[in-house]
Structure formats: C-alpha cells, structure tokens
Amino acid sequence: MIKNILPFTTTALLLTGCVSPPEARVPARQAAPVERTAASFPPRPAPVAIRGLEGVIGKDANTLKRVFGEPRLDVIEVYGRKLQFVGKPCILDAFLYPERKGGREVVTYVDARRSDGTAVDRAACIDALLRR
C-alpha cells in the first residue's frame, strides 16, 4: 500500500512546486482628505499705467457711460464685465473687474481695433471716441 501512495505523494509534492504562491495584496493608500472650499475670487489684474489711458483705466461703468455714451455691448462675465464702445474710427473694449470681493468694478484693461479687426493704438482710439 505504501508503494501505491508513494507515486501520488511524489506527484503531489512536485505539483505544489509548480503552483505560484498567492499574490500578497498591498493595502491601497488612502489620500489625505482634501478640504473643499468655495471657489476663490481671482485676483484683480493690476491696472497698466499707459500714457493716454489714464482717462479710462480705474474708472467705473457709470463714468464710462457719461464720457462715451451708451455702450454697444455690456457683457456681464463670471468675475467681471466688458463694455464695448463703437465709433467710425475704432471699437473700444473696456474690461472691468472688482477692486476687491464685493467692491465696485473698475476698468483694468482696454483693447482697441478697427471694424475689420486691425489693431489700433488704444490711446488714439480713446481720443477719437472722445472727439465724436
């Protein structure tokens, strides 16, 4: 009987050498909890001091409307506002952002172009719109 068991035992031992050990599972790392807060208010772009733009930079929407008249476009954006003033010589886009969270919106940047999209000197455009 031992002679009959010996071949089975030998075969079983040989087969166990062919079987790979079970994979060791490494516990998954848990990321540190992230504190979620409300979206932060983006920093206001610093006004650029360029000669000829001082009559517009830092002014609020009401002041611009008194100076240039009603804008062709008044676009309210997430954090700011864009006013577009149009005349024969050029199109002026004034970008207004709050001075601080909840503060009044003032012009921090202006862009000027012709109706065909060609860039125009911003100070010259402001001057031309003031003279109309």
Short synopsis of the structure:
With 132 residues, the chain is of the alpha+beta class. The protein is 27% helix and 20% strand.
Can you describe what's shown?
With 132 residues, the protein is of the alpha+beta class. It has a domain at 61-131: 2-Layer Sandwich (Beta-lactamase Inhibitory Protein, Chain:B, domain 1). It has helices spanning 2-18, 61-68, 122-131; strands at 73-76, 81-86, 91-98, 105-113. It has a four-stranded antiparallel β-sheet with strand order 1-2-3-4. A hairpin with a 4-residue loop joins strand 2 and strand 3. The termini are far apart. The mean pLDDT is 78.
Radius of gyration using CA atoms only: 36 Å
* Amino-to-carboxy terminus distance: 118 Å
How many β-strand stretches? 4
Class computed from helices, strands and strand pairing? alpha+beta
Q: What is the CATH class designation of the domain at 61-131?
A: Alpha Beta
Query: If you consult CATH, what is the topology of the domain at 61-131?
Result: Beta-lactamase Inhibitory Protein, Chain:B, domain 1
Largest sheet entry: 4 strands, antiparallel
Shape: elongated
Low-confidence stretches: none
**SSE arrangement, N to C:** HHEEEEH
CATH architecture of the domain at 61-131: 2-Layer Sandwich
The total of helices stands at: 3
| Proportion of residues in helical segments | 25-40%
Strand neighbour order, sheet with most strands: 1-2-3-4
Strand fraction band? 15-25%
> What is the mean pLDDT?
78
